[in-house]
């Protein structure tokens, strides 16, 4: 009986939570990635996780807040560098709602705190990314993105140009929720 009630609940609620990229809907999820570089004998490996929450202010355009957690290990350094921060973001989906695959572009600017051993610093960064969002269901999407990030602040004062620039790939997962314009009409 519990299984029948649960199935009925999912069937009824699926119409109410049907969502993709319409005004009034919510976006929750995040992305993760890996970055590695080598210059001479120096080598660095970075892993990051960025959860986010956003709201569609108009169809196809969402804005929100992204948290960031990043760990970088440089060959020869005793301690890893840990960076955490917060960044407002905007995201645009280029195709109309109800597409199996949609294409998005995302931009953010944020502020960071950086710690390596006992040393602490502050920083800022901006990031752009774009790629396909593959909707596994009407309200969940698996995302693949190419990204460019540029970091500045106290930690990068001795770097040529006072910034560290990165290119990479990330994979993400987003859940699209809420009433929105499409489900309000149903």
TrEMBL record:
It comes from the Bacteria. Residues 1-19 form the signal peptide. Residues 6-173 form the Outer membrane protein beta-barrel domain. Pfam families: OMP_b-brl. InterPro entries: Beta-barrel_OMP, OMP/PagP_B-barrel. This is Porin family protein. It comes from Niastella caeni. Keywords: Signal.
């Amino acid at each position: 009986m519990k299984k029948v009630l649960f199935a009925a609940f999912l069937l009824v609620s699926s119409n109410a939570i049907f969502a993709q990229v319409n005004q009034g809907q919510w976006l929750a999820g995040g992305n993760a990635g890996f970055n590695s570089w080598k210059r001479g004998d120096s080598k660095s490996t970075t892993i990051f996780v960025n959860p986010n929450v956003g709201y569609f202010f108009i169809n196809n355009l969402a804005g929100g807040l992204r948290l960031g957690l990043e760990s970088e290990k440089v060959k020869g350094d005793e301690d890893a560098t840990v960076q955490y921060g917060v960044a407002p973001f905007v995201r645009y989906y280029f195709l109309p709602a109800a597409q199996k695959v949609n294409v998005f572009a995302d931009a953010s600017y944020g502020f960071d705190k950086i710690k390596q051993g006992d040393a602490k610093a502050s920083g800022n960064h901006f990031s752009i990314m774009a790629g396909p969002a593959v909707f596994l269901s009407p309200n969940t999407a698996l995302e693949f993105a190419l990204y460019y990030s540029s970091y500045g602040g106290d930690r990068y004062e001795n770097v040529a140009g006072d910034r560290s620039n990165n290119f990479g790939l990330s994979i993400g997962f987003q859940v699209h929720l809420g009433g929105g314009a499409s489900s309000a009409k149903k």
